[in-house]
Amino acid sequence: MTLTTITKLAAVALVSVAAAGCSSWDSMSSRQKGAVTGAGVGGVAGAAITGGSVLGTVGGAAIGGVVGDQIGKHQ
């Protein structure tokens, strides 16, 4: 597999996980909603900043999830 294919698969997986999280959106706490949103935004930002790097996408999603969780804690 080429790096481009892996990047595309990682992006599709990230969107799928975010969509699955939204399917149960009403029963989620504000922290969980913040973590899901942060992971999605962080993954997209990480991919954009690093030019589609898998590590950048996953790292951005992880950091975004943590930040979103902490923001959701205070709501």
SSE layout and pairing:
Layout: H1 3-23, H2 30-49, H3 54-73
Helix pairs in contact: 1-2, 1-3, 2-3
- Total helix count? 3
Number of strands: 0
**Structural domain count:** 1
Low-confidence stretches: none
Strand portion? under 5%
Described by strand count, sense and barrel closure, the largest sheet is: none
Roughly what is the average pLDDT, rounded to an integer? 83
Overall structural class, as computed from helix and strand content, comes to mainly alpha
* Shape by Cα distribution: flat
Radius of gyration: 13 Å
* Helix proportion: over 70%
State the order of secondary-structure elements, H for helix, E for strand.
Answer: HHH
Organism: Pusillimonas minor
InterPro entries: Gly_zipper_2TM_dom (IPR008816)
Pfam family, one: Rick_17kDa_Anti
Keywords: Signal
